[in-house]
Amino acid sequence: METRPLLIVDGANVVGSRPDGWWRDRAGAAARLRDALVPVAEAGLPPELPAPVEVVLVVEGAARDVPAVPGCAVVSAPGSGDDTIVALVAAAPDRRRAVVTADRELRSRVGALGAEVYGPRRVPR
């Protein structure tokens, strides 16, 4: 059984939370977020989420082809990114799970499954 906390990042929501021109290159913005998340696998998100952490970035749409890198898995949502995140949370009921998003509906859905929720500012970008 996996003992590391599972950190699932809502890629579209986190990228979209900062108006830095991400809309001109959605895949590039998702890749930059993925790269910024790599250190979280070893450092965690102190003090709330201790290391080591399994980091999963969920991408969709134009960012769907962003590949995984060591330290950050990437899951390409076949449809709704929110539905994929909920499925990932539901598939790991015996683990500590945390989701990074500002989406109110998604926060409610994963919270009902017992996941912790953090806002986009909680992760490096």
Q: What features would you describe in this structure?
A:
- By secondary structure, the chain is an alpha/beta fold.
- Helices cover 34% and strands 18% of the residues.
- It has a five-stranded parallel beta sheet, with helices on both faces.
- Strand 4, helix 4 and strand 5 (116-118) form a beta-alpha-beta unit.
- The longest helix has 18 residues, at 26-43.
- The termini are far apart.
Brief synopsis:
With 125 residues, this protein is of the alpha/beta class. It is 34% helix and 18% strand.
- Mean pLDDT level: 94
Low-confidence stretches: none
Radius of gyration: 13 Å
Number of helices: 4
Number of strands: 5
Shape: globular
* Major pleated sheet: 5 strands, parallel
% residues in beta strands: 15-25%
Output the strand order for the largest sheet.
3-2-1-4-5
Helix content: 25-40%
Write down the secondary-structure element order.
Answer: EHHEEHEHE
- Structural class from helices and strands? alpha/beta
Give the quaternary arrangement of the chains: single chain
| N→C terminal distance | 30 Å
Write the layout of secondary structure elements.
Blueprint: E1 6-10, H1 11-16, H2 26-43, E2 54-59, E3 73-76, H3 81-90, E4 97-100, H4 104-112, E5 116-118
Parallel strand pairs: 1-2, 1-4, 2-3, 4-5
